[in-house]
Alcohol dehydrogenase, class IV
Amino acid sequence: MNEFSLNAKLFFGPRAVEHLGSLSCSHVLVVTDGFLQESGMVGKMCQHLPSGARVSVYSNVKPDPSQELVDEGVEMIFRERPDLVIAFGGGSCIDATKAILYFASQKGMERPYFLAIPTTAGTGSEVTNFAVITRGSTKVALIDDALAPDGALLDASFTRSVPPQITADTGMDVLTHALEAYVSNQATTFTDALAVKALRIVFEDLPLVFRDGDAMRARGRMAEASCVAGIAFTNAGLGINHSLAHALGGRFHVAHGRLNAILLPYVMRFHMAESAYREPYERLAHELGMSGADELLQRVIDLRSRLGIQDCLADLGSIDASCFEEHVCDMAEAAANDRCTPTNPRPVSRQDLVNLYRDAYRG
Ligand SMILES: NC(=O)c1ccc[n+]([C@@H]2O[C@H](COP(=O)([O-])OP(=O)(O)OC[C@H]3O[C@@H](n4cnc5c(N)ncnc54)[C@H](O)[C@@H]3O)[C@@H](O)[C@H]2O)c1
Ligand SMILES: [Zn+2]
C-alpha cells in the first residue's frame, strides 16, 4: 500500500504575509539566525503579527544546526512557553525549530502552533517531516511526521536578499530533491508529478534568479518549486546523493546545496550505468521534453557550470586531499547508515560509496 500526505497547510501568493495577522496568539517565539535578525527582516515580518501579541526572538541558529543548539532551544522554549512558534529562515532555522519542538514535546511540553516561513528557495523544510541535525561530525536526518510544521507561508519577497552563490546552492538543492524523489524506490504517480513540475521550474528560473536577484516572478516560482519538491520527497524519500552530502557536510562544513550539486552527476552516472536503474532517468527526461537520460545528465552539468559551481570536491579548495582520504571510509559508513539510503533506487555497497566519493573528489 502507498500513502501520500501533506501535514502543513500552505499560505502563498501575493500578500501571503498578511495571513500572520489572522493568527490567534498571545506570545510568539521567532526562531531565526543572526543575519536575518540584524538585517531587519525579522522585524519586518513581525509587523504583520496581531497587535498586542508579545514577541520573543531566538536568533542563535547557525548553518547545519548542532544538537547543542537544539538543546539550548529546548530550555528556552520551556522558559518562554509561547503559543505560536515561527521558524523564519533557511533550512537551518526551520530544521532547528523542528528539532526543538520535537524534543520539547518528548519532554512533555504541549506543542504550540508551528508556522514555517522559508527565506531561501532550497530545502522545502517548511513542508517536510525531515530535520537534519549535526551531532559531533555527523549530520543526522531525523524523519518523523511529528517534525512537520502545521503551516508553511511562502512569500518570495523574503528571498530577495539571498546572494547569487546561496541562490545557486539552494536552487541546486531543489533540483536534487526533485530528481532523487523521482528515481526513489518509493516514488508514486503523485510524487512524480510534483518532481517533474519542480524540475521544469528549476531549469527555467534558476539561471534567471542567479543572474538577477530582483527577478521576483522567477523568485516566486523558485519558492514554490522548493516547496513542491519538498512535498515530493517527504512522500517518496531521497537517495544516496543526500546520504553522501550529509556525511561530507558533517565533516567539512560546505553548504548542503553545493555538495549535492557537485555529487549529483557522479550519482546519476552510477545509477545510469545499469539499465534497470537508468530507466527512471529516461522516463524523466522524456517528461521534461529531453531526448533521453544522457541529455538530462548534460543539462544538469551545464546548469551547474552556469551557476559557477565546481565540477569536483577538490576544486572547492577547502577539502584537503589527505584529510579527505583519511575520512573517506568513515564517511561511506555514515552514508550507508543515513536515513536517505533505503529509498535509493540502486542497492549500494560501502565500496560503491567510497568509489563515488573518490570519483567526486578528483573529477
Ligand atoms: N529538513 C529538510 O527537509 C531538509 C532538506 C534539505 C536540507 N536540509 C538542511 O537545511 C540546511 C541548509 O538550509 P539552506 O540551504 O536553506 O541554508 P541555511 O539555512 O544554512 O542558510 C544559509 C545562509 O543563507 C543565509 N540566508 C538565509 N535567508 C537569507 C536571505 N533571505 N537573504 C540573505 N541571506 C539569507 C543564512 O543567514 C545563512 O548564512 C542544511 O543543514 C541541510 O542539511 C533540510
Ligand atoms: Zn537537500
